[in-house]
Model the fold of this input.
Amino acid sequence: MASFENANHTWSNISSIGENGTNWVNPNLPEYDLGILEIPLAIVYGLVLYLCLCLHTFTPEKFVQPLLLYVICLFMIGLSSTVKSLKSRFFCIGVSVAAAVEIIRQLEAHSFLYSAKDSVIKIIAIQQMGSVVMILWEGFSCLKANSKLLPKTDPPITAPLGVHRGPINRANFAARNTASCYWDNLTPRRQWWFKTLATVLLIWAVDNTKQHLWRTRSKVVWDDMKVNQTVYFRRLLRNQVTLRETAIRAYFAFETVWGAYSWYTRLHYSCALFFVGLGIDEPEEWPPSFGDIRQAWNIRRFWSKYYDRLVYRTITGYSEMTMVCIGMGQRPYSDRKRWLLNGFIFLYSALY
Done:
């Protein structure tokens, strides 16, 4: 038990190194400049991109240049987070965005698995959009010192972006009852890590089981997707729709939602497990990619509360920046200003 408590205490000290290397638990530990981690992180990100592409191609030399450009993107984003001059930040982010545009242009010219290409392009685009909002725009920057000092009950201005790094409630293991279960003895970080890992494994198991049952039991043929079957409800009133056709339509409708949820959630949480497990990021920095499906009881709430959460924080940040630029001030907004903000959010989501 003593060794277990010592190990947990050591992990708590390591994981307590917050932004700018400040240690909030043990002041005797040295302070670290986490900006220097951007170089190895860029290499790690690049290797992930490289492996993702090479899994579906036999000519990996085509992706050497996009890989190097992505390393430059990550390095410039890390450099922009360490400089104080706004002009220097503009230069660094400008180089990063230009390199990202060139990466997307080159990837579009190559032919490999569509889901992998689409995911890589969206990851790069969302990352660049987030870097512009969080680093260049002072009012929304996650690097501002006052946002770190705000209590957890008072959300900072970065709340729409989902980047607020609130303090983690680390348990005092010395005061715990020795008879408590193993789960209660884990730190909140470890509890989050195991829950996220269980979520990834559960989604993987459900997805593979679904695909196996579909391949072995459905026996779908091309005759099930004829042109004259495009219309559904009018044919349903005429008793021209079979139960098999309805089941196939229901499956594809479900797959449209489940496919995106399964793919992006596994990809998102896999990266979260890696960086939170190393102590580089906090669990609060990796919110879910999708919202709660239980809140989507109509079409509007399906898109606003569940599906569009993937880019909602970044798009909301751009919309609030636009509101400030046209003289509407900062939030909270009410009445007509709120409707105008929703209009900008809808516009930017359509452009994206």
